[in-house]
Amino acid sequence: xxxxxxxxxxxxxDPSKLxxxxxRAGAVKEVRDYIVEHVKEEIREGMSTGEIYRQAFxxxxxxEKRPAVIFSMKRAVFELGPSGFPFERFVGxxxxxxxxxxxxxxxxxxxxxxxxxxxxxxxxGECIGVEIKFHxxxxxxxxxxxxxYVQARFTxxxxxxxxxxxxxxxxxxxxxNTKFTYNAIKYGxxxxxxxxxxxxxxxxxxxxxxxxxxxxxxxxxxxxxxxEKKRLLEDGLVLxxxxxxxxxxxxxxxxxxxxxxxxIQEVKHLCGLNSRVQ
Length: 278
Fold this sequence. Notes:
Blueprint: E1 2-4, E2 10-12, H1 15-24, H2 29-42, H3 49-63, H4 65-71, H5 73-78, H6 85-97, E3 101-109, E4 114-123, E5 126-133, E6 141-142, H7 144-157, E7 171-176, E8 179-180, H8 182-191, E9 194-196, H9 206-213, H10 226-234, H11 240-245, H12 248-252, H13 257-270
Parallel strand pairs: 5-7, 6-8, 7-9
Antiparallel strand pairs: 1-2, 3-4, 4-5
Helix pairs in contact: 1-2, 2-3, 3-4, 7-8
């Protein structure tokens, strides 16, 4: 049975991929088996991966709330758009929760010209310049031209000194919310460009970094509407933990006290395995 991927290409439906995604989200085996069998019964020729995801998500949401939120994380990150700026802020928060010092939108002087760098993330012995590429459609990939451009910029910046207190960039990184083309990955490996997408590399990909940092975007919450998410993003709120730290932000957009309590409970449940609310 062939299914249609987000980029329009077709591939055979592989139940093991769905099972692995559910497992990464923390769904128990009994629930994973139930969902996979249900989807296998409903699958039809040409069905889109988006339709398969929605079926699996609806089933998981009824069984296990927290795994359902984690399972939906890719689309939650996608919903940080459309400008890409909230995604950029979100990635900065991920690095910060991984104990990096973070600066956004920094203008650095290279050997040849100046460059505006989306994120500079540093810790002792490490200074990473990060270029963010956000795509509004899941099927769009960052291609070889993007990798070449980003690598050229960071080659110009490597080791150059800038203002006091700013570390000299010793590594370039390209992070996207979707995927890379085959040639972009091939070039990045050869050129030494650190590249991170939702599923690349196998370890240390965007999904892994979010899980390790315990940093969840507000777009993953089911207790607030899409309109409310948009308002909160416009106000600069991108993390779930800010909902708990600043509940008045919810009140300022017209959410009543009962719903605020419900939203805060969802955040606490989502982050229940952590020692602090994220």
